[in-house]
Amino acid sequence: MAHIGDLVAEMLAQQGTEVVFGMPGGQTTALHDGISRRTDRIRHILMRDERNAAYAADAYARLTGKPGVCDVTVGPGANLLPAGFLEALNASIPMIGIVGELPLDWLPLKEKGIASQGFDQLSFFQSCSKQAWLVPSIAALPELIRTAYRVATSPRPGPVALIIPHDIFDAEWDEETLKIAVDDRSVQAPYLRSTAPADAIEAAAALIRRSKRPALVCGGGVHGSQAAKVVSAFADRLGGLAVTSLSGKGAIDETKPYAAGVLNPLGSWAAIELIQEADLVIWCGSKVSQNTGMNWTLPKPEQATITIDCDPLEHGRTFRPTVPLLGDVREIVTALDAALGDSLAGTRPDWEARIVEVIETGERAKAEEIASEAVPISPPRVMAEIAKRLGDDDIVVSDASFAAGWIAGYIPAKRPGRQFVYARGQGGLGYSVPGAIGAAATRPDVRIVTVAGDGAFSYTLGELATQAQFNQRIVNVVINNGRLGWIQLWQEIFFKNVQSAILETQSVQPGFASAASALGLKGIYVDKPDEIGPALDAAFDHDGPSVVEVRIDDRATPIHSFKRRMREGSDKPRPRPGTVYKLRDWKVSPDL
C-alpha cells in the first residue's frame, strides 16, 4: 500500500526536482521510502549536517533555477536549517524545506520538549523564510505542495518551509480518491514574468541617450531571471561602463573592454574608481546592498539612476531612482534595448577611453601580484593558476570572507552565465563545500572548484566524506593562513593586541590535505609558488574529489582600503570602527 511519503516524492518528481538533499529521521522515513521507489526520476543525497543540506539545495537552485529541496526531521534537524534559509531568503533563491513534525495530536505537548524534540517550528520558520506552513490534514497536502513551489519561484523568489506531521507522512495514500496534479509553471523561477509600462521604458531610454558617462551595475537578479545573455548584449550596445556585484559575477563577459569587474570593497579597484565618475547608474537586478553600494556612498547625490527589479520594495529603499522599472530583468532589458534603437557603442569616445585607461592600470597592478614568487604564497598567484585550468562550463563556488574577493578580482568571467556561485545573502562561513555538492549534483560532467580560507573550510570538513561517497568531481582549494584573515586585519587596524583571530599555534597546525586523505579524497599540500601548478594539475586530472591546501601570506587582503591602511602604517590615527559603516541620508536621484 502506498503512503503519503509516496505522494510527496511523486509530486516532487513531477515538479521537476531531480535531487533532494538532507538527513532522515524517524518522522520523515516515509519520504525517503517514497524517493527510493522513484530513483529513475528523483534521488536523495545524504548530507552529514542539516545546515549543509540547505547550502547544497541553495547551490542547486542557483545553477538550475529550480527550487532546491532539502529535508530534515523534527527538532534538532529543523533548528539547523535557518543559516541556509536566511542565505536563500536574502539572495532571492527558490528553496523548499520539507520538515518533519510531531503527530498532530501531540502538538500541545511540543513546548519544552515534553514530547521528544518538540518546539514551535512554524513560528521558527516564519522568521527565516518567505512563507511557512504546517500541513493540517492529508487532504490539504497536495495543494500546499503546489503552493510551496509557486511561492518559492514567484517574484521575489525565496525559501519556503513545509512542515509535515509524522502521522500524516505515515498515513496510507489512496491514489484513487486523493488525486495529485502539479503546476508546470512553477518548475523553475521566475514563476511568471512581467515588464514595466511603455512610457517608463521610453523615459529610461531617453535618460540613457542623454547620459555622457553611463554605468551598468548587474546584480544577482540578472541570474535569477536567466538574463545574462540578454544583459551582456545590452552592455555591448550601451557604450559605457559595466560592473557586477559578487552575486552578479558572470552577468557580463569580463574580458570586454568596458567590463571593470566586481563592484565591492572586496572587488575591483577599477570598478570602485570608475563608478564614481558615472553620471547615470543603471542598477540591474541589484538591491544596492551595503557592499555593492560601497557602504551606501552610491549612488552619489549628483548621479541619475535607473532601477530594474521585480520587487517593488527595492525601488526607493535607500534612494529615490530617477526612473524605476518594475518587472522581470530579462523582459525589461529586452524592451529597453529595443527602445534605444541604434547601438550607442562608440558614441562616447572620451568615456570609453577613460574606462579602458583605468582598467588597464588595474590590470598592470594585478599582473605584479600574480607574478609574485613570495613565500608564503600570494593568493592572486593561486587564483591565476586556477583560472588557467577552468573549462568553459566549470563552476567556481566561493566561500565567504577574503576568498570571495580573491575569486572576484583574479578569476575572470569569460562568458555570460552563472559560472560563479557566491553565498552573499548572509555571507556566512562554511558554504563552499556543501555548495559544491549541490553544484556537482546538477553538473556531474564538469569540474567544480571551491575556494575557502582555513576558517571557512573548518566549518564543513565532514561534508568532504559526502563528496567522496558520491565521487564528485570537486577540487577544493584551501588558502590557509592560520588566521581569520579579515578579523585579524580589522583588529590590527582598529584595535591593539587582540588575538582572537588566530586559528593555530606552533604546536597545533591543522592539516586539511591530510584530513582530506583520511576521508577518502586526494589531498595535496603546497607551500611554494612553483608547486601550485603541478598540484592543481593533479587535482583537476583526478577522477574524484580532492583538496589542495596552499599556505598563503597571512597579511594578504583583497580589500583595497585595508591595503592602503597597511601601506600607511599602524602609527596613523585609527578611526573608531563605528564610523566606518555609516548609513547616509536617503537620496533623491536627479534627472540629466
Automatic annotation (TrEMBL):
Classification via InterPro entries: DHS-like_NAD/FAD-binding_dom, THDP-binding, Thiamin_PyroP_enz_cen_dom, Thiamin_PyroP_enz_TPP-bd_dom, TPP-bd_CS, TPP_enz, TPP_enzyme_TPP-bd
Extent of the signal sequence: none
Cofactor requirements of the protein: thiamine diphosphate
Keyword hit for Kinase: no
Entry superkingdom: Bacteria
Boundaries of every Thiamine pyrophosphate enzyme central domain copy: 201-336
Coiled coil ranges: none
Residues of the Thiamine pyrophosphate enzyme N-terminal TPP-binding domain: 4-121
Sorted UniProt keywords: Thiamine pyrophosphate
Pfam families, per the entry: TPP_enzyme_C, TPP_enzyme_M, TPP_enzyme_N
Residue ranges of domain Thiamine pyrophosphate enzyme TPP-binding in the record: 404-550
Family designation: Belongs to the TPP enzyme family.
Descriptive protein name: Thiamine pyrophosphate-binding protein
Organism the protein comes from: Jiella pelagia
